[in-house]
Amino acid sequence: MKGPLFYAKILLFGEYGIIKDSKGLAIPYNSYKGAFKLADVLEGDKLKSNQNLVKYFKYLKDLDTDLVSFDLVQLEQDLADGMYFESSIPQGYGVGSSGAIVAAIYDQYAKDKITVLENLTKDKLLQLKTVFGLMESFFHGTSSGLDPLNSYLSLPILIQSKNDVESVGIPYQQNGKGAVFLLDSNMIGETEPMVNIFMKKMKNDGFRKMLSEEFVIHTDACIDNFLHGDAKALFGNVKKLSKVVLDHFKPMIPKQFHALWKKGIDSNDYYLKLCGSGGGGYILGFAADFEKAKTSLAGHRLELVYRF
Hints:
Organism: Wenyingzhuangia fucanilytica
Protein name: Mevalonate kinase
Keywords: Kinase, Transferase
Radius of gyration: 19 Å
Order of helices and strands: EEHHEHHHEEEHHHHEEHE
Structural class: alpha+beta
CATH topology of the largest domain: Ribosomal Protein S5, domain 2
GO molecular function: ATP binding; kinase activity
CATH architecture of the largest domain: 2-Layer Sandwich
InterPro entries: GHMP_kinase_C_sf (IPR036554), HddA/FKP (IPR001174), Ribosomal_Su5_D2-typ_SF (IPR020568), Ribsml_uS5_D2-typ_fold_subgr (IPR014721)
Helix content: 40-55%
């Protein structure tokens, strides 16, 4: 048994904002992927994966919803036969490791599933996103459902609001100087504690005002710039966004990266932003001149995501 591949995702823009109805843009990231496999002997990481899937099976069994049902008999049998999820997607790095598992489970075991071959209307996309949100809540406490949606469809997804999602085309990559890249923090981040910090901050009037008047406005502008291929305007808005995140989301940025974050804003060599919920994992970077950014960030591991 070898299941289809499910890829990592990168939320280019919209982290935290999508919880509060701002726009979001997620793209598949094909450098990392996962698939179901069967092992004759379960040991090491294969055993750990299988045990985690058994816990997830129990969660799905108790899931009280009319939106989706699963072939739980087959799932239980496959787990007993040694099924595990083989994945190169790093966990706790903000690139959708749990989203790929959710997408794979839905693809393999959901009854009357919405398939990627259908005409994916906004209603169908929204239904999928809602189902995936319920399914992924096992891993994070709460979930927007965006990561599994992206992994399942392997298409760029634009969130206009909580009730409005669509698949979009993004401009073809150019061989220019500019780039989007990942910076490895060498730390694992956990989503739930970061979301809890955010929810606590949301009780503050000043923070809520900043979110709607600065963070969401810059995020929406970045998405519009990116989708229209306007790199010059994009870097201007990413700089503003990077500064707002440094000023107001410090707990989500590992302490040892605060100075590096500010260095990028001051030098204009690169701009950093959160990749997912933060707290570790990858940090997302934007640079008008990637070679200059690499020199400026010497000693750190960078991965190229997109070229302008």
